[in-house]
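Researcher: Sequence recovery benchmark, item below. Answer with residues only.
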């Protein structure tokens, strides 16, 4: 065993760890887990643990039976919400086939491969998420805890303590938090995580979701990452701050030669995102409900555009200080917090790298299309629309040779199969809106 594995066994004994949860994700980014005891830890770290791989297919039960979950020793953390006596730890796992080959449909492995390709080209991919979510009163329906708004304080922000507990728990697990606040919708909150390499960020997002739900559960409330739970309020997004650093650890997106400090590398990367976003929107926004968030006037992008300042754009360039070039980044605003972060980071990194490799030209910013107006509306400036419903996004994904190359043809096929099932169920369900609208009329 290497030093990390020896250290984990020693730490587990010192901290009285009795159980270790092995975490992994299915194709939809749902966290899966099974538990081993401390007596099995050494074998798990060396050889992995066999499990039923049919769980990896999402809603679709696959014929992948016996698989091996090999814990990533670097992700070992004790779960703060479990008892100190006979405590519980967790590790993320990489998935292997029974003959110890990487499972090609493992989301985490797909991201590892995409990061390796970027590394071979001389880049490290850093990401920082702004995660929006809701605290509601119960699991039964989205019943409001408060009617607070953007940055409100007590008494309007009644969930401040729950948010505080979430932040403290994240930090106990080694996840650094930049800030937290009440968001624009009633009962909505945002917690921003510090930027990390993309694999660590993806693990942190998965951890964040379970931490928020655990904190809510012990307080008899419910944390929801549903993109649009309330009809007349903003939905929840997960704005992603993205940057590339070169082999000398310099920010490859920064340049003093451009008025906005955007390097050619950054411009090509943005052009790649704008080119391929119709093809990866089904990945960044994977649920039928995701598309109810893309409504003009509710702080979510609706068109394919970029800007140096406008929040209505799909991609925004946050303000930065020229004396801090490491802070140069771009912000992608369409993803939502219910996505599979491993597949999302794979898709957007591959798109950006294609823009760099092929030197794709960046179209004018929104404000340049309308004489620097701060009121520039992408809908009125000829910008193409983002997919407006899941079926459209899936059709784009199905036709995309680029996404099949990036994520794997089998992954795309299984992902679409899951989503077709979701759409079929939704189309056959009679909603409260149907009854309200049509029952008295027809």
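Model:
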């Amino acid at each position: 065993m290497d030093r990390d594995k020896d250290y984990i066994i020693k730490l587990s004994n010192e901290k009285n760890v009795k159980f270790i949860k092995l975490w992994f994700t299915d194709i939809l980014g749902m966290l899966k887990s099974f538990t081993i005891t401390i007596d099995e830890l050494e074998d798990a770290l060396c050889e992995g643990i066999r499990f039923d791989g049919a769980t990896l297919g999402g809603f679709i039960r696959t014929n992948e039976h016996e698989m091996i979950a090999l814990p990533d020793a670097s992700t070992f953390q004790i779960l703060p919400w479990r008892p100190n006596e006979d405590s519980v730890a967790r590790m993320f796992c990489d998935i292997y086939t029974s003959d110890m080959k990487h499972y090609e449909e493992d989301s985490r492995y797909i991201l590892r491969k995409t990061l390796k390709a970027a590394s071979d080209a001389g880049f490290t991919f850093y990401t920082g998420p702004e995660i929006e979510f809701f605290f509601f009163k119960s699991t039964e329906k989205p019943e409001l805890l408060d009617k607070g708004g953007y940055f409100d304080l007590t008494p309007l922000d009644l969930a401040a303590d729950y948010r505080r507990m979430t932040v403290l728990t994240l930090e106990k697990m080694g996840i650094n938090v930049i800030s937290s606040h009440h968001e624009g919708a009633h009962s909505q909150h945002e917690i921003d995580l510090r930027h990390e390499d993309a694999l660590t960020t993806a693990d942190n997002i998965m951890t964040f979701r379970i931490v928020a739900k655990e904190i809510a559960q012990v307080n008899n409330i419910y944390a929801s990452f549903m993109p649009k739970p309330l009809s007349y309020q903003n939905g929840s997004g997960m704005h992603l701050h993205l940057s590339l650093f070169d082999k000398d650890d310099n920010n490859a997106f920064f340049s003093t030669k451009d008025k906005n400090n955007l390097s050619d590398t950054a411009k090509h990367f943005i052009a790649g995102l704008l080119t391929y976003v119709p093809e990866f929107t089904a990945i960044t926004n994977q649920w039928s409900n995701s598309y109810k968030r893309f409504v003009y006037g509710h702080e979510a992008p609706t068109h394919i555009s970029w800007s140096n300042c406008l929040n209505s754009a799909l991609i925004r360039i946050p303000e930065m200080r020229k004396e801090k070039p490491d802070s140069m980044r771009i912000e992608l605003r369409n993803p939502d917090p219910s996505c599979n972060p491993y597949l999302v980071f794979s898709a957007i990194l591959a798109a950006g790298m294609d823009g760099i490799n092929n030197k794709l030209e960046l179209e004018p910013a929104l404000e340049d299309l309308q004489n620097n107006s701060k009121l520039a509306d992408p809908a009125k400036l000829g910008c193409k629309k983002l997919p407006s419903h899941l079926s459209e996004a899936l059709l784009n994904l199905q036709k995309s040779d680029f996404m099949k190359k990036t994520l794997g043809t089998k992954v795309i096929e299984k992902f679409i199969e899951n989503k077709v099932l979701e759409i079929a169920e939704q189309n056959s369900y009679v909603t409260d809106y149907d009854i309200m609208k049509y029952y008295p009329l027809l």
